[in-house]
Amino acid sequence: MEANEKEKVKSRTKELLKEIYEDKCAIASIEDPSIKEKTLEKYMQTEYTKKRREIIELNLDFIIARVRIITRTQNEKLIPFGIDGMAKAIDKFDYEKGFTLLTYAQDLIDRYIRDGNRQLYNDMGIGEKTYDKIMAVVTGSQRDLSIPEIAEMTGIPQDTVKRAMYALNPRYGINNPSSEEGGYTLEDVLPNGEEPVDIAADKKRVREEIRNLIRTVLNEQQQKVVLLKYGFLNGIPLNNKKTAQILGITGERVRQIDNTARKILRKYIDSSCAELFDVSVGGHSRKAS
């Protein structure tokens, strides 16, 4: 990021934090406890959420950098954990103390990323001691290590190291069954003659049904693009540029994958719910492109 761009991000972040502080001060000055409570609740669900989302999007590069520094990888699976840490930091941030947000947020972001890393290992059936050994070697090395090198240095079997490194970074070189040029097809995952997914006309329910549909009918790369871009992972939609940066592809490639994925999804959406589908997915595309 260019120096002037960093200054713009820093300035806008500070401006938003100041607005949040002033908004909360104004609400705190309301004398009627009942009105104050209702006003605060509405603010937190609307304006505050919107401003917090913008702060996170502005500082997404910092979160991505923390993933790289902590794990020595570019594992996009850990970015949502870092985003959750940033969100928590914004919630707890005290504007009056004069700290910069990133100075305050770094420890929380790092903690959430490490917890997410452990969770990925646990999901792969890898214990904490094994995790600690591998992480000590990987993060302590001045260069990228091969799987045989890690196995030799830790005394852990190569098969376990392979599973561990895949959990840590799917791009590490281990065969991935679902890729841009291959992976599962609709015929592979849906029984013949299966009826379209029946989605209730409730926005929350629709998003949950669409999330399940995404994981069922899209290949891995399509899933990553749609889940990230439309905020299915953490409620924060991203534009093509940010989505591309996380996935290590071009913005144009994100656009192409997104268009293909949405065409596939629409085939399985009940026509009576098509409008809600556009709100949940298609509608975001205009805001997040």
Describe this structure in words.
This protein has 289 residues and is mostly helical. The chain folds into 3 domains: 3-110, no CATH class; 121-168; 186-288, Arc Repressor Mutant, subunit A (Orthogonal Bundle), CATH 1.10.10. The chain contains 15 helices and no strands. Mean pLDDT is 77; it is low at 170-202 and 283-289.
Topology:
Layout lengths: L2 H26 L4 H13 L1 H12 L1 H12 L7 H14 L8 H23 L4 H13 L6 H8 L3 H11 L17 H4 L13 H15 L2 H10 L10 H8 L3 H17 L6 H15 L1
Helix pairs in contact: 1-3, 2-3, 4-5, 4-6, 5-6, 8-9, 11-15, 12-13, 12-14, 13-14
Radius of gyration: 22 Å
The largest β sheet comes out as: none
Mean pLDDT over the full residue set:
77
Count structural domains. Answer: 3
Can you count the beta strands? 0
Number of helices: 15
Strand content: under 5%
Q: Return the structural class.
A: mainly alpha
Q: Any idea what the shape is?
A: globular
Give the H and E element order: HHHHHHHHHHHHHHH
Low-pLDDT runs of 5+ residues are: 170-202, 283-289
> What fraction, in percent, of the residue positions are helical?
55-70%
| Alpha carbon gap, first and last residue | 20 Å
At a glance:
This protein has 289 residues and is mostly helical.
Question: What brief labels describe this structure?
Answer:
289 residues, mainly alpha, Arc Repressor Mutant, subunit A, 3 domains, 15 helices, disordered C terminus
